[in-house]
Amino acid sequence: GESVGLHLPTLSVQEGDNSIINCAYSNSASDYFIWYKQESGKGPQFIIDIRSNMDKRQGQRVTVLLNKTVKHLSLQIAATQPGDSAVYFCAETNAGGTSYGKLTFGQGTILTVHP
Amino acid sequence: DADVTQTPRNRITKTGKRIMLECSQTKGHDRMYWYRQDPGLGLRLIYYSFDVKDINKGEISDGYSVSRQAQAKFSLSLESAIPNQTALYFCATSSGGSYNEQFFGPGTRLTVL
């Protein structure tokens, strides 16, 4: 889902399905991207990251895809489980430039997994 | 034990009061950050510090100040709280170098009446 003002995009899936969460980033100079998961009442938790010299990176049950041409990032979660229900944020930075260490966060997407 | 801790976890205060939120970390990281989170707006950077002698304004620093008392401690102050500072506040840390993720604390829920 893309940002639509002050209402967070939502994604509802059935347990066992694959989930795809999308993020459009704004800065063409960004060269480092991170996906965070935030459960209710907790701080954001690192999921996976990718540098701009890569198009794809895989972790355990998660894959991040980066399309620099259209400034688009996606997070794929395989065999989604109820414990994956959370808000997912993408974050970007120009790590190799003047904004190193400073992350800019997207609005977030609410993922709800139904048993 | 948590690597990044924040105190208090919840705070209700009145307009005009001075409030301090504290953050401590045991990760040995040099870099620390303060963010606020509002519904539908994601996390926005208030201040950041790359070492004890380095303090920088973030995207929304007006109305806030910070103090880096030690490598492990970074506090955020609201000198005169106002209702639109009601939000969730998160502290984060990261190690030196450019391509490193930030580790977040559990957050402080602040309500200004």
What this model shows, in words?
Chain A contains no helices and 10 strands. Chain A has strands spanning 10-14, 19-24, 32-38, 45-51, 56-58, 62-67, 72-77, 86-93, 104-105, 109-114. In chain A, the strands form 2 sheets. In chain A, strands 1, 3, 4, 8, 9 and 10 form a 6-stranded mixed beta sheet that branches. Residues 1-5 of chain A have low confidence and may be disordered. Chain B is built from no helices and 11 strands. Chain B is mainly beta.
Task: Give keywords.
heterodimer, A: 115 residues, mainly beta, disordered N terminus, B: 113 residues, seven-stranded mixed β-sheet, four-stranded antiparallel β-sheet
List the helices and strands and how they pair.
The complex is a heterodimer of chains A (115) and B (113).
Chain A: E1 10-14, E2 19-24, E3 32-38, E4 45-51, E5 56-58, E6 62-67, E7 72-77, E8 86-93, E9 104-105, E10 109-114
Parallel strand pairs in A: 1-10
Antiparallel strand pairs in A: 2-7, 3-4, 3-8, 5-6, 6-7, 8-9, 8-10
Chain B: E1 4-7, E2 10-13, E3 19-25, E4 31-37, E5 43-51, E6 54-57, E7 65-70, E8 73-78, E9 87-94, E10 103-104, E11 108-112
Parallel strand pairs in B: 2-11
Antiparallel strand pairs in B: 1-3, 3-8, 4-5, 4-9, 5-6, 7-8, 9-10, 9-11
The count of DSSP E runs of length 2 or more, i.e. the number of strands of chain B, is 11
Q: Tell me the Rg of chain B in angstroms.
A: 13 Å
Write down the secondary-structure element order of chain B.
EEEEEEEEEEE
**Dominant shape of chain B:** globular
Number of helices of chain B: 0
Distance between the terminal alpha carbons of chain A, to the nearest Å?
22 Å
Low-confidence segments of chain B: none
Shape of chain A: globular
Strand composition percent of chain A: over 45%
Number of helices of chain A: 0
Strand-residue proportion of chain B: over 45%
Overall pLDDT level of chain A: 89
- Which oligomeric state applies? heterodimer
- DSSP helix fraction of chain A: under 10%
Q: Report the span from N to C terminus of chain B.
A: 33 Å
